[in-house]
Every structure is written in C-alpha cells, then in structure tokens.
Amino acid sequence: MIKKYLIKFLFFIVFLSCIPNKESSEDSKIFTNLIPANTGIDFKNILTENDSLNYFTFPYLYEGGGIATGDINNDGLLDLYFTGNQVSNKLYLNKGNLQFEDISEKAGVSGDDRWYTGVTMTDINGDGFLDIYCSVGGKYKPKNNQLFLNNGDGTFSDKSVEFGIDDNGDSIQGTFFDYDKDGDLDLYVANYPPTSFSTPTFLYVHYMNNVKDQQSDHLYRNDGNKFTDVTDEANLRSFGLTLAAVVGDFNNESLPDSDVSNDFRSPDFMYINNQDGTFKEVLKSATSQTAFYGMGVDISDINNDGNLDIYQADMDAKINRRKKANMGNMVPSLFWEAVNAGFHYQYMHNCMQLNTGSTKDGIPYFSNVSRITGTSSTDWSWGPLIADYDNDGLKDLFVTNGTRREVNNNDYFDDLKTAKLTKESLLERSLNIPSEKIDNFIYRNNGNLDFEQANDLWGIKYEGFSNGAVYADLDNDGDLEIILNNIDDFATVFENRSTEKNNYIKIKFEGTSKNMFGIGNRVYVKTKEQTQMQELTLSRGFQSSVAPELHFGLNKSDKIDELKVVWSQGETQILKDVNANQTLVLKFKNASNTETKNEEKIEMLFSEAKNIFPEFKHEENEFDDFLKQVLLPHKMSSFGPALSIGDLNNDGLDDYFVGGAKGFEGNIFIQTETGFIKKELDLFKTDRFSEDVGAVIFDADQDGDNDLYVVSGGYEFESNSELLQDRLYINDGNGNFVKAEEKALPKMLSSGSRVYNADFNKDGKEDLLVLGRQIPGNYPFAANTYLLKNVSEKGKPHFEKYTELAGNLFEDLGMATSAIITDFNNDDWLDIIIVGEWMPIKIYKNNKTGFEEVSEQMGLTDDTTGWWWSINEGDFDNDGDLDYILGNNGLNYKYQAKKDETFDIYVNDFDENNKEDIVLSYYNEGEQYPLRGRSCSSQQIPAIKFKFENFETFSEATLVDVYSKESLDASLHYQVKSFASIYLENQGDTFKIHNLSVEAQLSSINQILVDDYDGDGNMDALIAGNLFVSEIETPRNDAGYGLFLKGNGKGNFTSVPVYNSGFFVPGDVKDMATIKVKGNKYIIAAKNNDFLQFIKVVQ
User: Fold this and answer.
1) According to the model, what pLDDT value does residue 600 have?
2) How far is CA 166 from CA 131, 220, 258, 421, 581, in A?
3) Between the CA of residue 510 and those of 183, 477, 518, 547, 569, what are the distances in Å?
4) How far apart are CA 714 and CA 851, in angstroms?
C-alpha cells in the first residue's frame, strides 16, 4: 500500500530532481572589485603595534572589525558602517550608483578610543529608523558597548546607558531577536573573556562552574525603553570564548533558538527556547561534533528542505603547505581530556550542520556535512555568509579568512621556546611573526550537497586579512554585493551582476510598532522548481549584521506560484502568482491570524518500540590501539557487539544474543509471552576475556535445535593468542548451553569479524563462512578467512576446513568485514561475495565442486577497493536476479578519493628498525603528500625530524620526498579510488556500479536490511552505521542517523527523511537484525559502547 508519507516527502526531494543548470563559461564572472576612489569607501582598519600592545601582550589583536548594513535614512538605499579597532568607526551614506559619502563625524558615530569589534543595526525603539549597536573589547577600558540611537535627522546619540545595554564584558557582537514572543526585540550579547591560549581543561571546568558576570554572554529583555539583564533567569549564564551567536528557529516550533560558537576548548552552546522565557542547552544531543576553534557562524536553509542549517567556521587550511606549517596538531591526551570533562567532540575543521528535520523532545538533530560539501577547510576563517549570490535559487557560501600574523606558525613559535624573551623584545618578536596574505573563499551551491569553489569562476579575488563581512544589494539591482572589513587595507566592495542572468525577489516588511522591520519573520517562496525558505535575522557571520530584508534568487522563473510569510507573532500572509524582479513591501496589517489547514498526518513506517525489550548497554573495554601502531587511521578494537537472532529454546519464538567486549560476557535474551528475560549462563562469564564481534544461531549438530557460534576478534591480543579462537556453544534444546569440545572446530587463531551459515554442498548440513578481519598489531595486513565444512553427526558437532571447495582461496584474503551468501547467477548453487577494508569486491562462484573467484569476469576489478563495511541482496529492479547494496565509508569523511587522486596506504619498514610502518597518503593540488604531519610522522619514524629540520620544509615535501620512491615501490600498497556506497546492478554477465544517493553517503554504512517495508511490491533498504573510533586528527564519521531507501522496482532508490519515515538510528551502529514479537516485526540496532535500540516496523 502506498503510504501517506509520500506527500511531504516530495517536498523534501524536490531539490534533488530540479537542480538548476549552472553556467561554467568564461563569461560566468559576476563580481567586480570596486576601487575606493570610485565608491568613496576609504575605510582602513589599520593596526599599530607598540611596546604595550602587541601579540604577546594582547593575543586577540588580530580579530579585526565588523560591518553593519541598513538604510539609516529611509531613502531606499543601503548604507554601510565599519568598526575600527584603533581607528575611528565609519558610516557611509549610500548616494546611489555604488557611490558613498562619509558622514561619520556629522552623524556622531565615529566612536572614541574604545576597541570596537562587532556591530548591528536594528530599530531598538520602534520609531522606524535603524539604530547602531557597537560591541567593544580590547585590552584597555572602557569596554562598555555603545548604542547610537538614530535621531531621524542624520545624527545619532549615545543612549547605551539609558537603555541599560552598555555591557562591559569583552563583547564580540550583539544579536537582536524576540525570544519571549512579546513583540519587541531583546538582545543577546556575545562575550569573549580573555583567556590564556594554554589554559588547561580543568581550569575551563572551573570557569564554567564559577562563572563571573563579565565572563558570561548576556541576555537583555526589552522592557520598553529600558532593557533588563535576564541571563540567569533564562538559564543562559555560561563561560565560553564566544566569537559568534546566531538565532533562528531550529526545531520549527515558531520560537527563536540560538547557536553559540566558542573558541578553543570551551564547548559551543545550542540553546533551545522552552517557550517560557528560559532556554535549555542541547548541543551534545543535537550535534555529533563541532569545530575546535569555533569562529563565525551563519544559518540558512542550504538544501531547500524547509529547515535551518548552521555553518561554523574554524581554521583548517586547504592547501598542504599551510596545513602542515601553520596549523597546530591535535594532541590525543588533551582531546580526550576535554571529552571526558563533558565537553563535546571538537575537531579543527569547519562544520556545516545539516538540519535533519527530526526532533525529539524539542531537540533538533544535525549532521556535519562539511566534508561531502567540500567546505571543511577554508584556512584561518572568520565570517561565513550563506546567500544566493548568483540568483539561481540555491544558497551559496562566502567565507572571510586570513590572520594578520601567523600565530600558529610552528617553526616560529618552536624557536621562541628557546629564545630569551624580554619586555623590550616583545614588540620586535611580534612584528617578526610570519605573515601571508590569502584569498577568501566563495562556494557555488550546485545542489545535492555539492559546493564548488568559485573564486575564479565568479571573479572573487582579494588577498589580505579579512574579518567582518556582509552581503547587501547596494545598487538595488536585485543581486547581492559583498563587502569586507580588512586589516591594514581598504575595505573591499565586490559589485554583483547576477541579475543580468537570473531573476530575483526582494522582500521588506512593515511590521508592528515594536518590531518595525519584521525581525524573526519567515518567508516561503514556491516556484515550479522548488520551495525556498528564509528567516530574517540580522547578526550573521563574524562581528557583522545584514540589512532587514530578504533576497531570493529565482533562477529563470519569472513568476512565483506562492509566497507565504509567517510573521514572528504567528500571523500569516499568502500571495499568489507574484512577478519576479521586484521589491515587495509586506505589511503586518495585511496578515491574518487564521490558522492554516494542517497537512495530512504522515503515517510513519517505523516507530520507537516501547515496553517490550529490556534495556541493555554494550560496554567497550578500554584499550589504546595506537600504542601498538601509532599511525593507525582508526582503532581496531571497537567493532562489537555481535548480534544474532533465532529460537534458542524451541518454543517457536525469536530470541537474541548480544556479544560482549573483552572482559564483558555475552548475553542471551529469551522471548516469553510477556517480554524478554536475560538468561544467566556461567560459560559466557568464563569466556568473557575473548571479544565477541560476530555470531550466528543455527543447528550446528543436526539435533533439531539451534546452537550458537561466536566469532572472536579484537585488536587487544597477540596475533597468536588462544583468546582469538572462535567458540561453539551447543544447545540442549531448552536454551541451556555447553561449550563444544575443542576438537569441534579447527584451530583458527584469527581476529575475525562475521560468520555466515549456509549449505554450500547441498548435503543438508549448514556449513560456515568465517571472515578474518585483521592480524592484531599488523594493520593492514591480510587475515585468513575460513570456509568450514559441517561434518557433524547428530549431537556430535564437528567442523573442518573445507579444502575441497575452497582450497587456499581464502587465505590472506584481506581485512574482511562483511559477506553475502547468494546465488548471483541463478544456477541454484550458493555463491559468496566478500567485502572488506582496503579490499576490492570479491565474488566467488560455486562450481559445485569448488569455488572460483570471478570478480574481474563480472566487471569488478581492483578499482573497487574501498573501506567496505556491509553488503546485502535483493532483486531491486524486478528482473529476476539478485542485485546488491554495499556500504562503503561514505563521502563525508576526511579521507577523500577519486580515480585520479587516490587515497593510499603504504606499509614497509621504512627506517629499518624491524617494525612495519604505516604511511597514508592523499592528493592536494595535484601532488601526493603524506597525510600526517611532521610531529605524528616522526613519532613512528624519528629520523623524519632530522631529515626535515623544521615544519616548513616538511610542509613542502611530497610523499616521495619523505619516504623515497624505492621504499614506496617495495611496500605493501593498497589504493582507494572511491569511498562511495553503491548499488550493484546485476546485468547477468556483468555488474554495473551505481552510487547511492548523497543522503546515503553521509557516513559509513555498517549494516543493511532489505525488505518491502512500505508494501508497494518493491524491495527497499534500511541503512545505518558511523565510525566513532577515528584517530583524533580525523573527525569521527558520525553524520549518519540511519536512512530508509525506498525502492521503485527499477533499481532506483529515494532517500526518505527521518521525519517522513520514522527510522532514526543514531550512534555507532555496528549491526542490525529483524526480530518477530507477537506477529510484529522489530529491528534491533546494536551499537558499540551504547544501548541497544529497538524500532517497530509498522505493518
């Protein structure tokens, strides 16, 4: 039966099927850098260092100034205001034709000797004129923020004390929003208390538990012509090194929430509005990771699904040289110290947090997709701005970056460790810190989470040190200019000419007396191609604020089918058949509070199972894999638990087994009429020092009841440890088990992964395929996989290596992770497909008398090598043969691979110390480099520090420069050309590879379930995974929340979002299985070091 979820689902996927075409020709340049002599904008944020003010006396010297834009005199033209740190602020009146007049002194807004940082324009008193709120920081007092109230005659008056918002913290930016829905604008002030860069975690914990008023961000409630500090009352007192705070309705509950970006180790905050004047902090629930050096932040709906996404900047360099010369290494002890202190998983890269649209208890869930979008690394970044710069209907991304001095330059500061610093030498030392002008970044959104760097394509070129930035339609031609506040240089204005190619709509508001400009309003613009959504919030990026108007690109559409406004107070207004290329002024008086017709309730296919299964948590033992091999890409000891379903007491009901990590026993849960009970078994306690990574329930000894086979795995053991021997537990028919005699299984001291039962020779007995995962301490050397022949007699279990069928085919097979027992050629004999880490897809045909590898014959060469985690089968195109879905590492990981720019591993004893060394490599700007930096690489091979005496020389060294061509050629070498998860179409005599949808590429896929879940006669799939155990310089693969792939019976799949399917499986999912309870189907999701999750399949 076709389910009702399809109605809302079509809205979600429209951006996938209707992506506008993009130009790529030479005439695609849409921006021109205007010169100050023509614009009249001659502002320069000049920094002057001296003996008392330099990097060593005030390390926050280079954060720069901000920009605010808005129409301060209501003449229909947007004006610009720049803040200066040591120079006067400047207000430029827009005279038209992109020409401006400096009216700063006349207007009375130049400021004084304060160190000005961020700035926001807003109408604070509801008189219809924009006021200017300036944030203040710096080394010296006064540090009180200033409010310049617009007098309506071109002049301003300082009214900050009168309004009670002269905050005296070290402020970065003010954000105005109506948090309590009383109709007026309240104020959130982001403060950054100066804190030593070397502050240890325990001090952060102390500061967070003992927050002083000046250290906290502040929330001021608007009580008319006076603001009241309600920080404590709203549950917002906090210690954080705040560099940005944005507001928006993240959970679609019609209330503004807030995301706060904090620098260094201090964790970010996400505050969800409780609708009662208070907030709750939910960051660790809502996100799986954040940036480490959290900088500027912006919000917008990047994929047109109706949900606000978040982009947070950090300082990860894009090019290899700068990555390795300037950026600090992540220190494992400090990383885990912060995590264990209750902070979040913080990594040094930009985060593009994609809103899944799913909420639980009001908490929205986000996935960081910065790697798959290609926006993770934009160097020392400050201000991100998300907007449609080419008017094609998709929101693009601009990021300012550059630091006046490279204060993370490893070589310079290493030299300082041994230098004698005196008060007199500090200025000289500061001035000698290396400095490099670099370009900002602009990305064109191609749709489908594909962002393309477009600096050259669009004509964005400025090398310098840019901090604050805004977008604004300065010439009222319907496209957005970009304006930059630069250190030691003129401000930059990029003119945009996108309206020569694409259409637009601009929207302004005439609101209520307390919120004249409609702050907080949402607008939905629906065309034939898609529906766009924006929410009006002004403070964006870094230390800057945009104008109170909304700009939508419309691509080639000359008409809007429907334009819907949801005012911040809840009233709505709908316009039909709106012409493009105009500015609309929407008035609150025309809005209606009539409730809109509710959408038909979506009938979910999956729901949370309640009060059926007992709570159980898998506990992982502590073990540091990196002590064995320091440059492992990820831990190898945390791949459990094993999970298997079957009837263990002959009552016709499904029971289940969950394996234990080393030191923890496995557990059996027996189904009864009233639920499940845990069965206590002493023999599991005896075997608890093995690690259970795979299991299968089947009748091993031909006596009519199910037995239990458990695969031993893990990395904690010696390669010949007896604890690696698999175990067979024999059932007496009533769920009581004894361990089979040692001779029941051949000697297999191998660290395995999974086991599969099947009758390969049609003798009526279930044989076994046992996958070898690894050789502990010898990553990535190939392990043995075993085919075991069942030669049991009734009640006498016995298995032996199946040499007749397999020979030595599976010896040194690889690091096998998953397999499928299948009949791919429809000859009624069971074949085998095996996948693994650093393995190509391996196909073994059953020729009745033996197995033969036919991978290449079926079109699958070594080019299919990947980090494969899972495989499952189904006739997805309804052509009568079996097709396959294979789970790879995904396209959202730090490690990326393409056909001509591969990801490689080399293993050799490079330094001839009788230990095998691991070398991972990647491509950057067409050259192959070592993945790891000088410090990490020299931990493994100390000679590297002597060969490359400083970070600069190592940063320029290619892979061959570091390790030599001769040594690399003699190495064990594996190469990945794609990490994409795929659909493998069976075409009879060959297989054809199709990449799964982008939503299925957000993380590794560790398990795949196949069934016709929606009852339409076509096979569907459920996927889940993640990889939480990456080495700490590689952000976790944690963006997956599970996904329902709806098959159409023609080999195509549609990704159904969780808010339409109900399938939501977060965490480090290692396995899934289907179990029946009282006629209903449920799914058990087993997660490493986490609770089992149970999902009901709605019939």
Assistant:
1) 64
2) 15, 11, 22, 38, 42
3) 14, 21, 7, 14, 14
4) 29
**CA-CA distance, 747 to 745, in Å (whole number)?**
6
Q: Does position 10 have pLDDT exceeding 90, yes or no?
A: no
The distance of Cα 831 from the centroid of its chain, to the nearest Å, equals 38
26 closest CA partner among 447, 393, 450, 456: 456
Side-chain-side CA neighbours of 1099 within 13 Å: the count stands at: 7
**Please, which pLDDT band fits residue 26 given cuts at 50, 70 and 90?**
low
Q: Which two tokens stand for residue 294?
A: 């959290």
SS3 27: helix
For 122, the token pair is 């807003």
Q: How far is CA 1057 from the centre of its chain?
A: 17
Per-residue pLDDT averaged across 335-346, rounded? 96
Q: Are 1084 and 645 in contact (CB under 8 A)?
A: yes
CA distance 526 to 578: 10
Let me know: does 397 contact 443? Beta carbons within 8 Å: yes
136-154 pLDDT per residue, tens: 999 999 999 999 999 999 9
Look up residue 364 and give its amino acid. P
Dihedral sign for Cα 518, 94, 544, 215, please: negative
**Which residue type does 32 have?**
T
Phi and psi angles of residue 895, each rounded to the nearest 5 degrees, phi first: -80, 120
Contact in structure between 724 and 717 (CB atoms under 8 Å): yes
Q: Residue 12: which pLDDT band, with cuts at 50, 70 and 90? A: very low
Q: Is the CB of residue 1014 less than 8 Å from the CB of residue 1022?
A: no
Whole-number pLDDT of residue 487: 98
Whole-angstrom CA distances from 108 to 40, 95, 102, 141, 208 are: 19, 19, 12, 21, 39
Q: How far apart are CA 891 and CA 894, in angstroms?
A: 9
Question: Which residue, chain included where needed, has tokens 């067979």?
Answer: 728
Report the alpha-carbon distance of residue 521 to residue 308 in Å, rounded.
13
Ordered DSSP codes for 993-1061: EEEPPGGGGSS-EEEEEEE-TTSSSS-EEEEEE-B--B-TTS--B-----EEEEE-SSS-EEEE-HHHH
Query: How many other CB atoms are there within 10 angstroms of residue 821's CB atom?
Result: 17
Which range scores top for mean pLDDT: 26-30, 483-487, 598-602? 483-487
Nearest Cα to Cα of residue 741 among 703, 796, 783, 809: 796
Counted residue by residue, the chain has a size of 1099
* Strands 870-874 and 883-887, bridge-based pairing: antiparallel
Higher pLDDT, 3 or 892: 892
- Order of strands across the sheet that contains 667-672: 643-646, 655-658, 667-672, 675-679
According to the model, what pLDDT value does residue 11 have?
39
871 bridge partner residues:
886
Residue reference for tokens 């990704």: 1055
CA 359 to mean position of chain CA atoms: 17
pLDDT at 4 over 50: no
Residue type for position 567: W
Question: Measured at the alpha carbon of residue 365, what is the angle toward residues 360 and 369, in degrees to the nearest 5?
Answer: 165
Between CA 951 and CA 964 the distance in angstroms is 19
* Strands, E assignment, 178-308: 186-191, 218-222, 227-229, 242-248, 257-262, 269-273, 279-281, 290-291, 297-300
**CB-based burial label for 1016 (10 Å; 0-12, 13-18, 19+):** middle
Contact 775, 733 (CB under 8 A): no
Q: Using alpha carbons, select from 1087, 1068, 1022, 1066 the residue that is nearest to residue 287.
A: 1066
Provide the residue type at 963 as one letter: Y
Q: How many CA atoms lie within 13 A of 620 on its CB side?
A: 24
Distance from chain centroid for Cα 861: 32
Q: Is 809 helix (H, G, I), strand (E, B) or coil?
A: coil
CB neighbours of residue 106 within 10 Å: 13
